[in-house]
Amino acid sequence: MIYTSKIQKAIKFSIKTHEVYQKQKRKGKDIPYIVHPLTTGIILASVKASEDVIIAGILHDTIEDSIPEKKVTKKMLIERFGKKVADLVESVTEKNKELPWEERKKEVLMHIKNFSHDLLLIKSADIISNATELIEDFEKNGDETFSRFNAPKEKTILNYLKLIRTIIECWTDNPLAKDLIFLAKQLQMIGNAFFMSNYPEIVIEYKDYNKNKKLECPLCGWHGKTHPNIESDLVIDVTCPICDKILLVASFSSCY
Ligand SMILES: [Zn+2]
């Protein structure tokens, strides 16, 4: 990446919006909000995203999170950073913030399905920044971490898993796919006790196992072929390739 004056200008603009004008904090914490947009920009730069995509990452929450007295508009972004950046920021801005949490999240998932690769990259970096922070907080504070969110623990995790699965389905070669899958597996582990009892795996005798039957992950929604290694006698369980949830256990009867 070449560090440009336009990127520097975006950093200053984002700091003004989130920190100088409103001292915005990360939800329920005493951490400056600006850490998140800057992290998003760094993640995008690490995979050699274009200048405009890095800038849109740094600015991605400015329209959504600016206060009324210092409202950031699309027009302001067009004037300062050009139409491409403004369009990208507008597309990742959550509309209808007054809708209930569940409906809003459903809308975001539908919306992502029409995203360009540039938008998928910004959304991936956004999720990586947020999920990494969540996992780190969970390691420190356990379940209490989830009290600062609008939805309970399991719903928060399920939403992340669905987002990650949708993004990967839309763009398998996404340069951030490995990072997303790494996080999905960790998130699934955090909710594991609940998921084990509420979404139990299928237990079946190996001889009855239909290898042509497609499996579906009840957590992230992955729907695909069965594990190729199921052919081998050594593998006895099939896990979701996105979130690692155990989907099926093939048991061997004693006479087998
Ligand atoms: Zn899954």
Level-1 CATH class name of the domain at 1-93: Mainly Alpha
CATH fold call of the domain at 1-93: Hypothetical protein af1432
Main sheet overview: 3 strands, mixed
Q: Helix and strand string, N-terminal first?
A: HHHHHHHHHHHEEEEE
Shape call? elongated
Bound ligand species: zinc ion
The helical percent reads 40-55%
- Give the distance, in angstroms, between the N- and C-terminal Cα atoms: 58 Å
- The fraction of residues in strands falls at 5-15%
Radius of gyration: 21 Å
Q: Which structural class matches the secondary elements? A: mainly alpha
Average per-residue pLDDT, rounded, comes to: 91
CATH superfamily of the domain at 1-93: Hypothetical protein af1432
Outline of the structure:
With 256 residues, the chain is mainly alpha-helical.
Describe this structure in words.
The strands form two sheets. A three-stranded mixed sheet has the order 1-5-4, with no helix packed on it. The longest helix is centred in the middle third of the chain and has 25 residues, at 117-141. Among the domains are: 1-93, Hypothetical protein af1432 (Orthogonal Bundle); 197-251, no CATH class. α3 (51-59) packs across α6 (83-92), α8 packs antiparallel against α9 and α9 (153-170) runs antiparallel to α10. The chain contains eleven helices and five strands; from the N terminus they run αααααααααααβββββ. The protein is mainly alpha-helical. It has helices at residues 5-20, 35-46, 51-59, 62-65, 74-81, 83-92, 101-112, 117-141, 153-170, 177-190, 192-198; strands at residues 202-205, 215-216, 223-224, 237-239, 246-251. It is elongated and about 65 Å long. Residues 217, 219-220, 222, 240, 242-243, 245 line the site of zinc ion.
